[in-house]
Here is the input.
Amino acid sequence: MARIVSDKKKLHLYLRAASEESTLSVPRCRHFGECGGCEFQNITYEAQLDLKRRALAFIAEAVLAEDAPPVEGGLPAAIRSLADMLAGVEPELVASPLPFSYRQRMDYVYAFDKAGLRRAHRHRQVVELEECPLLGGEGFGVFRAALDLAKREELPSYDYMRHVGDLRYFVVRRSRSGGVMLSLVTKTLERGDAVRKILGELLDSSLIVSGHWLHAPGMGDVSFGSRIEHVGEPTIDECLNGVRLGIGPNTFFQANPVVAETAYARIAGFLTKNDLVLDMYSGVGSIALTVAGNAGKVLAAENQPENVILARRNIAVNAVDNVELVESDAVHFLQVQTTADGVRPDAIVVNPPRPGVGVEGIDAIARIAPARIAYLSCNPFTLLRDMRRLAVGYALQSLTLFDMFPQTRHFETLALFERR
Ligand SMILES: C[S@@+](CC[C@H](N)C(=O)[O-])C[C@H]1O[C@@H](n2cnc3c(N)ncnc32)[C@H](O)[C@@H]1O
Here is the structure.
């Protein structure tokens, strides 16, 4: 955890310095500068892309410099291999066709009687938002309508510093085919009357198709929770590369579906028709199902029960007969199940959360030794650290930066490897 915070800081300092040389642009949103949601509306989109390209190079250098005590004859073997691996590959950059209105989901915090996003560099303050150009379609209007109703119902906001109050988050998710899901995340179960009224009125006025009441009683600042009740549909559908995917209130889904389609298509193109593929950290089956047509069989592993249920439903809805979902910890699956069942995959796809796959998982993958590995990552620091362990046995075929998050410092990276 400490390492992730310091990675954030390193990248922040680098980007702040680098962005000072960038071409300026007029910010689109009135809240830019005070709101912590966007960092780069004041520079052109081309300059943002250039900044991210440089950020990836900066991170690679930082990781190469880590844990590399000088040894006789130069760098240790794994570090040297990572340097060689990177030296031969020029990263490609895929821009977002939509620099604004690209987000499928926004989590608007409600605290100190203000609803919106945290103030830039001031975690203890919230900026009340009157607009938010990141969220596409009708999503922002739904948030504002829900906020008005919460105020009318006197449903108190939740003070996350003193731990008093009730309504913590408005989570808005919208699908491109139409349909908004709104989740109200509360600390207590005391104001069911108000929550039901808010969700019911939004459903009756057709502003949402799905409304959830989620309960998050802990001290942690979370925008998910136990499902208490819902109105309308339990899920909404998004279509990615021709595959219909049901999304629930607590399930992961890529924030920028247009760019996600391109990234998933890249992974599909890396596979061959007869491949036995493992898809680790599979969520609701987005990658497994979109690559299934390019593979012999896909075995997917996911450990969150709500995702597992939805992934199995998504497999059935799309009538795909070559994808199987296993409820399992990904590392356990790689270490134990592949050995016990004699599974010999040709390709392994991993798309882990921010901490990455880690030493045990990467060592298990290296032991399985598939011909191809696709690693899609939201955290280039952990990706590069994991790559360091793969570098001895694998060659990097390509490295692609997908700009899933314009106006912010974040991006997604896809690394494709072939066994040496
Ligand atoms: C970045 S998301 C990727 C989801 C999916 N590949 C997609 O593109 O939508 C990571 C997923 O890994 C799951 N996950 C987290 N830790 C895990 C673990 N130890 N074992 C298996 N799955 C895990 C999360 O629940 C989440 O669905």
